[in-house]
Design goal:
The chain is mainly alpha-helical and 91 residues long. The chain is 82% helix and 0% strand. It is elongated and about 75 Å long.
Length: 91
């Protein structure tokens, strides 16, 4: 395997590991907020579900983080297109 490909794979592995840590942190912190909201209500009156704002706001960041880690990079997409064009030109 060539050095360039290894560096690219290493970079992808780091992004995916970072995303996984981010997701675990998101789940733990949001579970904590929701637990506070559930436990904090007196006699079943909890009021507005304020943790939803953390969950939704941070969730948007999680989605972008996912696409950054698991989406195809520009280099990979360009390589695929190059291979398609090579096949077409060879026909």
């Amino acid at each position: 395997m060539d050095s360039k490909k290894e560096k690219q794979l290493w970079k992808m592995a780091k992004k995916r590991a970072s995303f996984q840590r981010h997701l675990i942190t998101y789940l733990v912190v949001n579970a904590f907020f929701w637990a506070i909201w559930i436990i904090g209500g007196e006699d079943g009156e909890r009021g507005h579900a304020w943790p939803i704002w953390f969950t939704l706001g941070w969730g948007i960041g999680i989605v972008f983080s996912y696409f950054n880690a698991y989406g195809s990079s520009a280099d990979i997409l360009a390589e695929r297109e190059f291979e398609k064009l090579k096949k077409k030109a060879g026909e």
